[in-house]
């Protein structure tokens, strides 16, 4: 099925120029991309290309032309350039480019991965302004990927997927296989080097350096593998990659381990990383879904686009629980030290559980010591630079950062004024620190006992 151009201006005549492929082996990765769109969701129809008439100026740059049958003009690398006069186009030689393709896209590089190629995967290298065409085998694609196996079955049966349709696989697609004479084309988006790496592996012509790839490329490979169901086909290679990078999983810059490990079916160090991020990550005051991590004393926003949603939610939930525990601990301390009239009833209900009046008497018999401790505690909290309100859980920094701030808080007792004065209040600071570190104390009663009853006994 072919799509007709709306006008003659939509036509583009292509001419063919030879270009070497040497630059393909020295690509450098661009920074890790944002979430990529479904790879098969941007296919465009390719109409059989024939021989077109060229002007004298254009003919000067023409080296060779390709044809469907082998000849001396066959080449593994071609460059295709649109003419400036669409009206001269031969309708049989038109190639339709994506609607959102850059205006200056005029170069196509063909990469042959097997002699028995009968299928073409096209992908745009945005950084170089080049369209890459990977000449591959549909039988290898079908054998290595359930995605392609189903897609080819749809094509063989004449089934096409409309704009609202969904394929039998997990990702929605908005295209069908588009056949020319003796060939099938499909265009996708993604990272060209990642796609090239995977196609090289499954066609038994991998790059010799693929065992030593950087983590950014591994992340891009994981995305392409997930989109095309190549997870199992890459298993021998992914085992080596995971072994290499598992030792760096907790380091800054490797947070996408949460995604890579999921794609390749590994749980190694995932729980460790989740708990670490829950303690060390901060959030935006205005958008709590944005996560930041302290790297070299600088908060850097993490790209969480690829993270599994359930893992991201777990990190944020653990962070919230941790901060609530820290706030609750300091709130219990301030509530017990202040007078009964100003104590919050919700907190006092827990103190009643711990026999609040009796507890206060056991902390210190002096009617002056406890008010002195409370006053100095409030003064210490207020003096904290960029301090916090212990009554409200509005902290946007990391849980570890909040714990450090609370541990800096001090208070005084009569021992600072009267030589030889001793009371249980002097042990509260040590017990508060122990309570902050204990992540198993999830209720007010347990925290109160940890801070006060042990201090009273001491």
Automatic annotation (TrEMBL):
Residue ranges with Polar residues bias: 62-78
Location of the region described as Disordered in the Swiss-Prot/TrEMBL record: 49-92
Protein name (record): BTB domain-containing protein
């Amino acid at each position: 099925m072919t799509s007709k151009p709306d006008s003659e201006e939509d036509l583009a005549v292509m001419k063919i120029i030879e270009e070497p492929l040497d630059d393909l082996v020295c690509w450098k990765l661009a920074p890790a991309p944002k979430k990529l769109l479904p790879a098969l969701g941007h296919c465009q129809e390719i109409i059989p290309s024939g021989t077109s008439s060229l002007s004298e100026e254009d003919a000067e740059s023409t080296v060779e032309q390709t044809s469907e049958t082998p000849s001396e003009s066959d080449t593994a690398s071609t460059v295709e350039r649109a003419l400036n006069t669409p009206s001269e186009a031969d309708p049989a030689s038109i190639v339709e480019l994506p609607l959102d393709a850059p205006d200056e896209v005029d170069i196509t590089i063909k990469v042959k991965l097997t002699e028995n190629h009968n299928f073409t995967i096209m992908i745009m290298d945005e950084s170089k302004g080049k369209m890459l065409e990977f000449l591959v085998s549909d039988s290898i694609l079908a054998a290595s990927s359930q995605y392609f196996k189903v897609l080819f079955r749809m094509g063989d049966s004449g089934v096409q997927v409309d704009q609202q349709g969904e394929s039998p696989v997990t990702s929605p697609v908005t295209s069908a296989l588009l056949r020319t004479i003796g060939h099938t084309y499909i265009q996708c988006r993604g990272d060209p080097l990642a796609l090239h790496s995977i196609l090289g592996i499954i066609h038994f012509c991998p790059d010799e350096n693929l065992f030593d790839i950087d983590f950014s490329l591994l992340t891009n490979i994981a995305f392409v593998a997930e989109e095309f169901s190549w997870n199992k086909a890459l298993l021998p290679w992914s085992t080596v990659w995971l072994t290499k990078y598992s030792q760096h999983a907790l380091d800054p810059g490797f947070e996408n381990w949460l995604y890579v490990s999921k794609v390749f079916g590994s749980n190694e160090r995932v729980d460790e990383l989740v708990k670490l991020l829950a303690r060390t990550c901060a959030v935006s005051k205005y958008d709590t879904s944005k996560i930041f991590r302290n790297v070299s004393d600088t908060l850097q926003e993490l790209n969480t686009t690829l993270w599994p949603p359930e893992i991201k939610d777990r990190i944020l939930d653990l962070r919230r629980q941790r901060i609530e525990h820290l706030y609750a601990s300091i709130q219990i301390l301030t509530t017990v030290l202040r007078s009964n009239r100003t104590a919050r009833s919700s907190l006092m209900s827990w103190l009643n559980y711990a026999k609040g009046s009796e507890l206060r008497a056991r902390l210190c018999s002096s009617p002056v010591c406890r008010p002195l401790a409370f006053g100095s505690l409030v003064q210490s909290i207020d003096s904290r630079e960029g301090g916090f309100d212990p009554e409200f859980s509005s902290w946007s920094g990391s849980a570890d950062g909040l714990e450090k701030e609370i541990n800096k808080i001090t208070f005084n007792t009569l021992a600072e004024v009267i030589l030889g004065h001793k009371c249980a209040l002097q042990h509260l600071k040590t017990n508060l620190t122990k309570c902050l570190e204990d992540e198993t104390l999830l209720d007010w009663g347990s925290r109160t006992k940890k801070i006060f009853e042990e201090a009273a006994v001491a």
